[in-house]
Specification:
Blueprint: H1 2-20, E1 25-28, H2 33-50, E2 54-57, H3 63-71, E3 77-81, H4 82-89, H5 98-113, E4 115-117, E5 127-132, H6 133-139, H7 144-147, E6 156-158, H8 169-176, E7 185-186, H9 192-197, E8 203-207, H10 212-215, E9 218-221, E10 233-238, H11 239-244, H12 247-255, H13 261-272, H14 278-288
């Protein structure tokens, strides 16, 4: 009997000990490659600079799930894009220059949600309308306005959020008078490029920093009507987290302006095209950047 009691006490102590070892910071991400890489950059840099334990809650679907997880305290931070914050979260018109949009998002997130928007990481990841390189060359296409006459014969592929977003399909179609051969095909973001290269669709809505664009010889058509707002990548953090762990603010400040669009495209391709492990890749990247 004594041995049973001793075993029971040992198990309870172990469980309590495990409970006290819970991570200090929980970092989230949306469900695509770039977000995983950015979440890993935040996680490793905070671990390295502060000594805090970090738990990774990646692949949390889209913007709305990440925002609600943040407000509910299930995560402490994630990387958002200013244009997405402006339109999808704050429900504002998709317009403005980078600094103007950043300042509005920063002020409104603080006053409405008690969230702090940290300085931009250094790149703008706008939506990108992408077509096959051979089509761009054959049809002499450079801009989205150039594509209007061909759209009636094309099939468009989009991610799940794009149909519903204020800066999404409806506004884009109106701005460029697009009428496609059929309703947009909605699919997982990871499948868009395969669908385009295998000619299941003729145009996709991707992101400017997607690594597979250059790897597959694809072409981004210029948004010559300036429909999309800037989408600067910014960490969004709960104010309670920064009050509890003020050293996190300095760690995030270290990352400001450190990631270029070329960096991000290279990192994305390393994961998507070369199948690199994101953790090892990010460790090398931070070392390369002297972080």
């Amino acid at each position: 009997m004594r041995s049973v009691k001793t075993l029971f006490i040992f198990i309870v102590v172990c469980l309590l000990g495990c409970h006290t070892q819970q991570p200090n910071i929980v970092i989230g991400s949306k469900n695509f490659t770039e977000q995983t890489v950015l979440g890993e950059i935040l996680a490793q840099h905070i671990e390295n600079k502060t000594g805090l334990k970090v738990e990774r809650h990646f692949y949390l679907a889209g913007t709305y799930i990440c925002q609600q997880s943040l407000l509910a305290g299930r995560i402490d931070m994630y990387v958002e894009y200013t244009g997405t914050a402006l339109t999808a979260v704050l429900k504002q018109k998709p317009s403005g220059f980078s600094q103007e949009v950043f300042q509005q998002v920063k002020e409104d997130y603080q006053s409405r949600f008690g969230l702090e928007v940290a300085p931009p990481l250094g790149f703008n990841n706008s939506f990108a309308l992408v077509i096959r390189g051979e089509d761009a060359q054959r049809l002499h296409l450079r801009t989205l306005s150039d594509a209007e006459r061909y759209a009636p014969n094309w099939r468009l592929g989009v991610g799940y959020e794009f149909l519903e977003r204020p800066d999404g399909f409806a506004g884009l179609a109106k701005a460029y008078n697009f009428h496609f051969a059929e309703p947009p095909r909605v699919m997982d973001l990871g499948l868009l490029y395969r669908a385009l290269t295998t000619k299941q669709v003729d145009m996709i809505v991707g992101s400017a920093t997607d690594g597979l664009i250059q790897a597959h010889g694809l072409v981004i058509l210029e948004d010559d009507q300036h429909y999309f707002p800037p989408y600067d990548a910014v960490p969004v953090v709960r104010e309670q987290t920064l009050k509890r762990y003020p050293q996190v603010r300095a760690a995030l400040a270290d990352l400001a302006g450190k990631i270029t669009a070329e960096d991000m495209q290279r990192l994305n391709y390393a994961v998507d095209g070369q199948h690199r492990d994101p953790r090892q890749l990010v460790a090398e990247f931070l070392k390369e950047k002297h972080l």
